[in-house]
Amino acid sequence: MSEQQSTPDTPLKKLVGEKTAKALAGHLDLHTAGDLVYHFPRRYDERGEHTDIRSLDVGEQVTVLGQVQRTAVRPMRQRRGNLLEVTVGDGSGGQLTLTFFGNQAWRERELKPGRWGMFAGKVTEFRGKRQLNGPEYVLLGESTEGEAAANEEIEEFAGALIPVYPAAAAVPTWVIARCVRVVLDTFTPPEDPLPAAVRATRNLVGLGTALHDIHRPASKEALYRARHRLKWDEAFAVQLTLVQRKHRASAAPARPRPARPDGLLDAFDARLPYELTAGQRDVGREIAADLGTGHPMHRLLQGEVGSGKTVVALRAMLQVVDAGGQAALLAPTEVLAAQHHRGMLDLLGPLGRAGELDGDPAGTRVELVTGSLGAAARRRALTEVASGRAGIVLGTHALLYEGVDFADLGLVVVDEQHRFGVEQRDALRAKAGQPPHVLVMTATPIPRTVAMTVYGDLEVSTLSQLPRGRSPIASHVVPAAEKPAFLDRAWRRLREEVAAGHQAYVVCPRIGEAGAGEEEPPADDTGRRPPLAVTEVAPLLADGPLRGLRIGVLHGRLPADEKDAVMRSFAAGELDVLVATTVIEVGVDVPNSTVMI
User: Could you tell me which of 549, 518, 535 has the C-alpha nearest to residue 581?
Assistant: First the structure.
């Protein structure tokens, strides 16, 4: 071990020796002093504190802090020699057996009842008991000569905090702790990137102090301050990256798509059967202004289900079509893409059927591109898109594939943004000659702080009003097992809504009838039933509490045309109840449905 001063770039082999450095590199990808210093403990143990041995999972590689309770030696059945079993406890009643094979009398003398130690290995189970076979370990207090080197630095934390690191079988946590100690004793931290004024304003400790105290905290307060500073650094780095991305995007050139008087958008507004909310008008003006600039729009539109995001997005798409471009909407499921297609065609009327007998010559065409389209329909749709005759294109991931080419893609709308990665968003943007404007939408309420962190590269608009006539949503939890009468009342409440002319959803977490990719889950250890499935619940309801109602079934394993037919029937009011998986969760909109169980 070397005592020379080290920097973040110093190779570990110069500090901890070649053999240990090779193990750290091979098993944990740690090569330099900086790598090791930023390899933070995953938790901290205290002697006498509960490790909760009972929560360990079989097959898990663990490090536990425990106290030796008893030892027993017995002859092995299959071969010569003895087996040493050591029972350790965590102070809360949990016990773990350590098993050592062969004649190892010295271990029995070493692992005396009452000794505390850290034990590392893979959890197995034998005759209902959790155990570690031949674990690595280090004992705390009263070190023997052989333990002294490994134990010396651990003992600094005796009675205080013992760091437990993400480790490997060949590199247990106490070896990492020993290496960290050597490095910290010689480590010159990098210059603190945060100015002193910022640190003072935010009550942040210096970087060098934080890096020392995250590994060797003198107290819980010191540990809290170190964690707070290092977490702040991580969040700050994310923010800087997002701001840089935002500046790069805003500096890129984009073709302006300004509003055109007396165009498609004005004609659409004139035929809308209802009045836009004040929020829709305000957000519409923000988006219209963004589209008219020479830099690409990057805006997040959030709003509850039913707040009118789709109409806002459609108005933006029509502004782009008025300016000679095309707009594409990317939806996460075929059910939602098909619903957007039907909904937009209904809203546009003749304006969305240009070239057809009853179409408006001044209108455009709306095309749907999904993976389940037949060959002939796909060729026709792709021709309409490539020629530019289709001003509005709706689809699923199929829009991202090769062969889907646009004449002039000016706007990309991504629905339910959390279902898509940045790569998918970028793949669609790459289909434009110049960077297109981008509008992403979500119905998941996002607090401002989360929006800044996750969508810091986007401007955020929020629709907080519901359209006139929409009732606020009331949610209730029914403890079905404890109060079955409450569940009976829930089904009666659903029937009351249907009797009043409305419709209902019943949502289940599984499809059922185990097929490809789905196993029937057993009841868990507590005896609780597995999650209910659509194919089980639908017949139970049809023969039971919902007897006589028109019930449909919808899930992801149905063929696309069957899914579409079921949603059309439900939207047309031909079904009273739709029993479905969460395939309906992303924006499926049937205003007449008033209850969901």
Answer: 535
Q: Which helix (H) or strand (E) holds 44?
A: strand 43-45
* pLDDT (mean) for 78-95: 80
Surface-to-core class of residue 401, CB atoms within 10 Å of its CB (0-12 exposed, 13-18 middle, 19+ buried) = exposed
- Say how far residue 375 (Cα) sits from the centre of its chain: 35
**Considering the chain, what percentage of its residues have pLDDT values greater than 90?**
37
pLDDT band at 582 (very low <50, low <70, confident <90, very high): confident
Q: How far is CA 112 from CA 65, 88, 107, 246, in A?
A: 15, 11, 9, 62
pLDDT in tens, 507-531: 998 888 654 444 455 554 445 667 8
- Residue with more model confidence, 481 or 292: 292
Helix residue spans in 2-57 (DSSP H): 13-16, 18-28, 33-37
Phi and psi at residue 121, to the nearest 5°: 175, -170
Cα angle, residue 164 at apex, residues 161 and 167 outer, rounded to 5°: 165
pTM above 0.70, yes or no: no
Q: How far apart are CA 149 and CA 143, in angstroms?
A: 9
What is the band of 408 on the pLDDT scale with cuts at 50, 70, 90? Answer: very high
> Would you state the structure tokens that stand for residue 123, as one six-digit string?
């959890």
Q: Where are the alpha helices (H) located in 349-411, listed in sequence order?
A: 375-387
User: Which among 187, 68, 57 is positioned nearest to 123, based on CA atoms?
Assistant: 57
Q: How many CA atoms lie within 13 A of 203 on its CB side?
A: 5
Confidence at 561, pLDDT banded by 50, 70, 90: confident
Bridge partners (DSSP) of residue 592 are: none
339 vs 1, which has greater pLDDT? Answer: 339
Return the bridge partners of 119, or none: 64, 137
Tokens of 464: 């907080």
Q: Which amino acid is at 273?
A: P
Nearest 5 degrees, angle CA 404-CA 410-CA 416? 75
- Are β-strands 162-164 and 129-133 bridged in parallel, bridged antiparallel, or unpaired? unpaired
* CA distance to 138, 533, 557, 558, per residue, from 517 (Å): 44, 15, 11, 14
Q: What is the CB neighbour count within 10 angstroms for residue 378?
A: 17
Tell me how far apart the alpha carbons of residues 308 and 92 are, in angstroms, rounded to a whole number.
Answer: 54
- Number of separate helices (H) and strands (E) present in the chain: 19, 19
Would you state the torsion angle of the CA atoms of residues 137, 59, 69, 75, taken in this order, to the nearest 10 degrees?
A: -90
Q: What share of the chain is helix, strand, coil (3-state, %, to 5)?
A: 40, 20, 40
What would the pLDDT profile of 296-322 be if each residue is shown by its tens digit?
A: 998 989 887 778 888 999 999 999 999
Distance CA 429, CA 436 (A): 6
Report whether pLDDT(370) > 70: yes
User: 552, 538 in Cβ contact below 8 A?
Assistant: no
Place of tokens 């964690």: 227
Nearest to 89 by CA among 115, 122, 59: 115
Q: For 378, phi and psi rounded to 5 degrees?
A: -65, -45
Phi-psi region of 91 (alpha: psi -120 to 50; beta: other; left: phi over 0): left
